[in-house]
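Example 9 (inverse folding). The structure is encoded as follows.
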């Protein structure tokens, strides 16, 4: 929960620093754990980071760099797997929302 609160209150430069430090990769690992609360918090934090990435599209050739990074680390497959593996309806809905809002057009790997 602390990381969710941290990301929710960070400045843009602080979020960029967390991303550079590997926060996306850690969160993607967390959502694959069996602890449901950890999965929920990690998905919410990823949503905040992806929303932040949307604000960067203008300076990144129209690409959400956070979505691109999630994609590079297999996040789309992880979200799709979570939808079939977890019985928690909220996790299913959150993964659907992430996929629809940020990966409708999959980022191209450059």
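The amino acid assigned to each position is listed next.
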């Amino acid at each position: 929960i602390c990381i969710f609160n941290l990301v929710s209150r960070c400045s843009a430069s602080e979020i960029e620093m967390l991303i550079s430090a590997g926060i996306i990769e850690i969160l993607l690992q967390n959502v694959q754990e069996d602890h449901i609360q950890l999965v929920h918090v990690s998905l919410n934090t990823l949503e905040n980071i992806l929303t932040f990435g949307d604000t960067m599209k203008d300076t990144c050739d129209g690409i959400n760099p956070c979505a691109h990074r999630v994609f590079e680390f297999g996040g789309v497959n992880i979200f799709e797997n979570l939808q079939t593996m977890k019985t928690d309806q909220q996790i299913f809905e959150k993964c659907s929302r992430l996929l629809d809002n940020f990966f409708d057009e999959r980022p191209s790997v450059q």
